[in-house]
Amino acid sequence: MKQKAIFMGTEKAISDAYSDETKALLARSLEILPGYYTEDVLRDGLPHPELADVAYAFSTWGITALTEEELASLLPSLKAVFYAAGTVQYFARPFMKRGVKIFSAWGANGVPVAEFTVAEIVLADKGYFQTMHKGGGPGWPEHDRAKPHPGNYNTNVGIIGAGMIGSMVIERLRQYQLNVLVFDPFLSAERAAALGAEKVDDLPELFARCHVISNHLANNPQTVNMIDKRCFDRMEDNAVFINTGRGQQVVEADMIAALQEKPTRAAVLDVSWPEPPVPGSPLYTMENVILTPHVAGSIGNEVQRMGEYMAAEYAAFAAGQPTKYEVTEKMLTTMA
């Protein structure tokens, strides 16, 4: 007899993450209840006896953050949630306290972030963001081919945070002849050496020594405002700061001041705090700031890779085989 499962989220979000092929694959071994269990459905005040023996939930961005009491009432038999997206910080703990296992597609979502970041690092070393033509008339911006931009040969690149995404960035940078430095208090010297990177114990030192600095810190209370004036003031005159992590880790006023003091510096920001920046923020008008609307993570066809990862995790879990992407409560203290 097949165990029961549900999709938690809107029809659009679920269909974006779980292709028809992936849904069909899941339906071969599960009885998937019809419909989509959105927050409105789960909190409509009506009894939902059909959920009493549901064992598995498949979701993505937009999952309802239920309390322990709500879970006990609505989904008393739930064994596991398979989340076809990245961070689970905002919903996972009540599930875990109920003994529900959480699996996240952070591995799949990290792939496009790492690809996006590496592309930006390569462009930054070429001086792309300072020399790109931004309009205003014919001709090229003033540019000395010998300097001040070092190119992608024996250039120092700094990575902040060597978690899953930071490590993927470092691994992808191996194909370039770059010197990778990494700051991460949880990273051992042995692990840094295995990645092919030099461990730096002081974050301002990383900023001082690297032409490009890319943020991949975990998003937790310990990292809020970690990247501040001590760091930005030590940036090289033509250095580039890249942020595809989270905006809360940056003291925005300190970053803006450093960029205004030396307009040859640049910041390439896929995230901010808040998102988007507040109306009137200097970030909108500064020529040495490049803003993108949080597109580093999975978009378009890339989203379906996350659903495929979660289908594979379910298959392994149901068969009693090792899984790759379970998130534990301990992991929540260090992961994004």
Describe the structure.
By secondary structure, the chain is α/β, with parallel strands linked by helices. It has two domains: 3-108 and 300-333, Rossmann fold, CATH 3.40.50.720; 110-291, NAD(P)-binding Rossmann-like Domain (Rossmann fold). 33% of the residues lie in helices and 17% in strands. The chain is built from 13 helices and 13 strands. The strands form two sheets. The chain has a seven-stranded parallel β-sheet with strand order 8-7-6-9-10-11-12, with helices on both faces. Helix 6 packs across helix 8 (164-172) and helix 6 packs antiparallel against helix 13 (302-318). The protein is elongated, with a radius of gyration of 22 Å. The two termini are 38 Å apart.
Total number of β-strand segments? Answer: 13
- Outline the low-pLDDT stretches: none
User: Would you tell me the overall average pLDDT?
Assistant: 94
Cα(first) to Cα(last) distance is 38 Å
Question: β content, as a range?
Answer: 15-25%
Q: Gyration radius, to the nearest Å? A: 22 Å
- CATH homologous superfamily heading of the largest domain: NAD(P)-binding Rossmann-like Domain
The domain tally reads: 2
The CATH architecture term of the largest domain is 3-Layer(aba) Sandwich
Quick recap:
This protein is α/β, with parallel strands linked by helices and 336 residues long. The chain is built from 13 helices and 13 strands. The strands form two sheets. The chain has a seven-stranded parallel sheet with strand order 8-7-6-9-10-11-12, with helices on both faces. A six-stranded mixed sheet has the order 2-1-3-4-5-13.
